[in-house]
Amino acid sequence: MTRRSYTIYAVGITSAVLLTVGIGLFVGQVFTTLMQNRLKKELILVEGSRVFESWKRPPPPVYMQYFFFNVTNPDEIAAGEKPVLNQVGPYTYREYRYKDNVSMVENGTKVSAYNTKSFVFLREKSVGDPSVDNITTVNIPAWAVMTKLKGNFWKASMVSIWMNSLGSGIFTTLTVDELLWGYEDPLLARLAPSYPDVEPYFGLMYKKNGSNDGEFIYHTGEQNYMDYGRVETWKGQRSLNFWTSNQSNSINGSDGSAFHPMLEKNERLYIFTPDLCRSIYMEFEKDVEVKGIPAYRFTPPRSVLASKEENPANEGFCVTPQECLGTGLLKVSPCRKGAPVVASFPHFFLGDEKYVMDIDGMYPQREHHQTFLDLNPTTGVIVRASKRAQINILFSRISGFPKTRQLKEMIFPVMFLNESVVIDDASAARVQKLLLIVTLVSNFPLIIVGLGAILLLVLIILLVRARNQQTTTADDTSYSAVSDKEKEDPQNGTYIGLTAKSDPQD
Prior knowledge:
about 500 residues; alpha+beta; 2 domains; two-stranded antiparallel sheet; 19 strands; disordered C terminus
């Protein structure tokens, strides 16, 4: 057997082996499974893991924007006319968040932490100076007191007299700083000595700068990757006690800062948010890309804040059967000391049309008012997110308070916030590198198949060239007698002498 034959046989066998092994590995998803198992083991909340430090102190900058609804016709509203509001904002703050007092519990299967947040004002990203700009809005402390005294005519009449003497009306004008971070309210200051649970100060973000929401205990994901970042308890409780059903009081999902790897489009992601005093869920909307990283966009569907008629599962969020609001609203008074506070998406996005029509100045738009999460499905990393929520006050007539006599019942917007984050370049580069490794390892069987296909092509070329060479040799070689009479060798007998063919004409 010639060297050429050995080469052909070697190329053929190698090609067949590579093709067989590669196709087998690809069909069996061996390397994909191997890579996924590796990720599941590395993406856990324990010391030394790939994600633990970034979970404790997220590197991407988080921005908190506040938009206020300035009341332009307070006297007309008090007389029963339609409110005319003007949106003012944003007032932007850099939000610094980190996990404090982190400790492993239950043999390292869970981790305890406090979510601490602090805010620093950014003038260059804001429309004005919060210490100077005034906003006319609903007098929330007055409404809280009036609502608390509903049905108690004598106390209501006494507080009504106090409000007149103190100049406290149903609307107030304050600076953005006062509305956000707190001010001494004259009515609350008057009530505080007689009621120990009443603080004289009020602010939408009062005592929230540099504070936390209480202790969280999370699953590390070591036992089951699907539990990565899932909240086990909050303030020592496995469920809430604000609502009227076990389903509504359940604490589900993560706190919104961590999601398990290997996400699927058909998943429903649950997030527990103390600000809303409940868990919400998000569903897949579309594929997106952020800084070259593929992601799934998850958003809360309309059913999350739907009325009990539209979504019977939401009946547990009714404070009472008489206090069950329509689609797009959530009355959070049970966890706001009874204050008539109503949460919604900005501009009543995904809510009933009547709430938009009751107010002049509401223009719901998906682009500006939708809450969303863009998650890389392989790692579960947040590459972009925006949490948007609106604070409203339930307006209605309250007996014992003449100032409310002519008011129309409505949901009155006060302010909405936009908490947003986009992955920073350094973190994006790390994610891209990890995804490249995952892609290469997962596609290794295809690389083997590709090499096998190349060798198969080489084999075909070698076979064709060998065949052509044999044909050429056969055509160029013949035999003829050396003379008319065959020569005889005395020892070896007759032989035939081979000569090249000659042209008869030569």
